[in-house]
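One-letter codes give the sequence; the fold follows as tokens. Both lines appear below.
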Amino acid sequence: MKLAQLLFSQGFGARRECEGLIAAGHVTVAGARADDPFADVDAPGLQFTVRGEAWTYHEKALLVMNKPQGVECSQKPKHHPSIYSLLPTPLRRRDVQSIGRLDEDTTGLLLFTDDGALIHRFTSPKKHVPKVYEVTCKHPVTPDQIDRLLEGVKLVDDPATVRAVACELTSELTLRMTLVDGKYHQVKRMMAAVSNRVEGLHRSGFGALTLPAGLAPGQWQWLDGPQAIVP
């Protein structure tokens, strides 16, 4: 692949912009300045810098973020900043999208990719990808409420019965719930159906992936590929 084409594929600007960045000496490859936009490079895993920003070539972007409170999973947010404002410009130019959404007050594991087929694979209701939530409730959680969540509850304005595939108390006011479907505000509506209320919600797992230790709210990191999240 030509070096300018590689930069373009990674979201560093239009082709002419990428050619200009290289010609102006703003790009290094393997620690050495690169000044030929049309030099052939071995793309997979290539490490380079653009204006001092270190980057590694990824044919398809796949990353995980620890979503903070107070941001919306929307390109056109209405009441809070967009989650995409926390991503660097090259990823935004690549049009990465979140795999599913979290409410503005929900924190935790959120995935992004520019692979449309992968988004469909992990959001299709037919795939039954497990999502794990740490739920903080307003009232003490009773064994009867746990049983009802596992057996299935009916949500307001929804004739279908939904249930948790796993649910366990983690303290008097907290529980860990695993779901395989993704209805709007599902955890909150399920807790309301058993006469409780969600005060805090954090997603700790998606598929086989758990939120990486040490990833602070608002931070993100690359994932090796879809196999990292396959259940």
